[in-house]
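In the present case, backbone shapes were mapped to integers, as reproduced here:
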Amino acid sequence: MAASRRVTRAVNAVLDLAPREGEVSLTRLVQAVSEDRGRPIELKMADLPPGVCGQWRQYNDRDVFLIQKGLPAWDRTLAHELGHLVLGHEGTPVVQAVRETVELASSELIGYMLNQRTGCMGPAGEDAEQEAEDFAALLLYRLGRLPSDRASIVQVRLGEAFG
């Protein structure tokens, strides 16, 4: 499935922030997005609940991407979480989701819900997840085609257009 124009524009915008010299990596792109937004983005490895590979947590003064410890392909998860941020996805606050869906909850259920990425909740959750997946796939594809010294993003785009 081809990425939507919105996703393609978001990937282009992130790649436009890539450093002009030196290696272009996903972590350097995250740093560039952080600098462009004027808001720190921290990357942390964490023990997340089973089935959860990553989370994006928003705080008053920073954003944090949590990546499941021991994940073999953590770059895909990081790119996915970056996609949520860049695409402006907003989740439902956990407290609101609990109030709307649960009358009585055990402490285990509350703990589980507090550890879930809130972007999955709410009516647009599935669309946001697919959009973030499309963003991650396209970003990683394009990163893989960039020369290690990044002569020009134009070369990559021309190569994609004309094969």
